[in-house]
Design brief:
This protein is mostly helical and 501 residues long. It is built from 21 helices and no strands. It has one domain.
Length: 501
């Protein structure tokens, strides 16, 4: 088991390290951007982002999921792998052309729908073009992930992200182009990302395969409603917030969300390594029963603890990094981090469905979770504004993860029954709720006092996690930190010891 955990951890570490630099730079530049952009500007950017999130699930045709299924079914056949990548690209190229044509023809109407004015029609067209470039990148980014070429993936992602930050700085701060500059920077960034990820696949033989196309669409189409559900879960609260509270409050939510969204560095690192990792167990699922359960425990302890740190340090970070107009954004940071954490937990529960080749059930789960999210939004956003929007975001993600696991349990006789360590997970969950609520309470403290309070909470959290570890896990963790083997780095459990004999 230890070797398998190390393999997953190594892949996750590579994916995680790649995003740290760009995220840190983005946070450091936040004081500059909030000086040149008002809350209303951030609200406009958020609504344009909402448009992109709506278009992506529709015009990717579910190929983000079906490519993984087809790719591993064709394992070992190089030409067929190339056919999967280039066939997917051809389909998405046709789909993107249709999207751009429709978006350009109806840009005024889309602007009215989003902003109740046609004044933003030009920005709508630029946003749709950026979305098209992102869609066309999909086959090539997935190819690197499916082949577990994490180092190359991270290198290209990091360089592209840094270029994106530089472009945004140039357009917003240097040229003072405002929202239009921000959107233009996003467009050119997506074009750079497309070219960067296209390069490694350019050496592959370009091949169209009609059978592969049919398989991709057959597995992909049923996922479109699922992705629509994801859109509602992650973005629906923004439209409702803008409707009831205006672009200014949406801008405040967006700034807090962007800070809390740094949690995706770790969640995406895990998810990027997790998907190809668990799919590699196809055909030998029984080997994964205990292993996947242990991975679940470590995910909850590790990333759950990190998401709590966002609650603890949200207020001092926002007070330091933003102008006073944006200080209320701190109340959204922790809730956004929780939503990211719950989204990662949802991915933990996907292997049984994939192994049973019943990925259509994911659609049902996500649609039900989306309905829950809409209900929360309509109930909480009108009276509580950005806090209600944050609770909606986290609550929808939690509902999706809980429903996915409930579905797996309901089909226990047909699905892989992963041996999760629910006792330890429940104890951590209780501590999670207490600490999250405590640090979400409104308070009026100085920045030094807030920092001291945050540090105290972090110490308590460390004690909670340490108390939940077994003795062998504590020793293994200590051994990992000092990078040595021997008595100080004992195996994780007796099973690990047996496996190493």
């Amino acid at each position: 088991m230890r070797e398998q955990l190390t393999r997953l951890a190594r892949g996750a570490a590579i994916y995680g390290i790649g995003g740290v630099l760009s995220r840190v730079i983005s946070l450091l530049l936040l004081p500059l951007f909030t000086a040149y952009l008002a809350p209303v500007d951030y609200g406009v950017i958020a609504m344009l982002g909402l448009l992109g999130f709506l278009l992506v699930p529709v015009f990717t045709l579910g190929l983000g999921t079906s490519m993984g299924l087809s790719y591993f079914e064709l394992s070992g056949e190089g030409d067929r792998k190339s056919a999967t990548i280039w066939t997917a690209f051809t389909i998405l190229l046709a789909s993107s052309i249709v999207m751009v044509l429709i978006g350009t023809l109806f840009s005024g109407e889309i602007s009215v729908l989003l902003f109740r004015s046609d004044a933003y029609a030009g920005l709508v067209v630029l946003s749709i073009l950026a979305t098209a470039a992102g869609i066309l990148s999909l086959p090539f980014t997935l190819a690197l992930q499916l082949e577990e070429r994490a180092a190359l993936f991270v290198t290209l992602s990091t360089v592209s992200s840094l270029a994106s930050i530089l472009l945004t700085f140039l357009m917003v701060v240097v040229l003072r182009a405002g929202v239009r500059g921000y959107v233009l920077a996003g467009l050119w960034s997506q074009v750079l990302i497309f070219l960067a990820f296209l390069a490694p696949s350019a050496v592959r033989k370009i091949r169209w395969d009609g059978k592969v196309a049919r398989d991709l669409l057959r597995h992909g189409y049923p996922m479109i409603p699922a992705f629509a559900g994801i859109f509602v879960l992650q973005q629906g609260n923004r439209y409702i917030l803008e409707h009831f509270r205006g672009l200014g409050e949406l801008g405040l939510y967006t700034v807090g969300h962007n800070i809390g969204f740094a949690m995706t560095l770790l969640v995406n690192a895990f998810s990027g390594a997790w998907s190809p990792y668990f799919l590699s167990f196809t055909g030998r699922e029984e080997e994964a029963r205990e292993l996947f359960g242990r991975i679940g425990t470590y995910y909850v302890f590790g990333l759950g603890a990190v998401s709590l740190l966002f609650y603890m340090f949200a207020k001092p970070v926002v007070l330091i990094l933003t102008k006073p107009l944006f200080h209320a954004s701190w109340s959204v940071v922790g809730l956004t981090a929780s939503a990211c954490f719950f989204n990662g937990a949802f991915s933990l529960f996907l292997p049984p469905v994939y192994f049973a080749k019943e990925v259509r059930s994911i659609t049902m789960v996500q649609i039900v979770a989306a309905i829950v999210s809409i209900g929360l939004a309509l109930l909480l956003i009108p009276p509580f504004g950005i806090v209600g929007a944050g609770i909606t975001l986290a609550g929808g993600a939690l509902a999706m993860a809980a429903l996915m696991q409930a579905w797996n349990a309901w089909n226990r006789g047909r699905y892989l029954a992963v041996a999760y360590e629910w006792g330890r997970i429940r104890r951590f969950a209780a501590a999670y709720v207490v600490l999250a609520v405590a640090y979400s309470l409104r308070r009026e403290l100085s920045v030094p006092a807030e920092i001291a309070l945050s540090a105290a909470g972090a110490a308590v959290l460390l004690g909670v996690v340490y108390s939940l570890l077994r003795e062998t896990e504590r020793k293994a963790l200590t051994g990992w930190f000092v990078r040595r083997e021997g008595p100080g780095a004992a195996p994780l459990d007796a099973e690990d010891h047996d496996n190493r004999k």
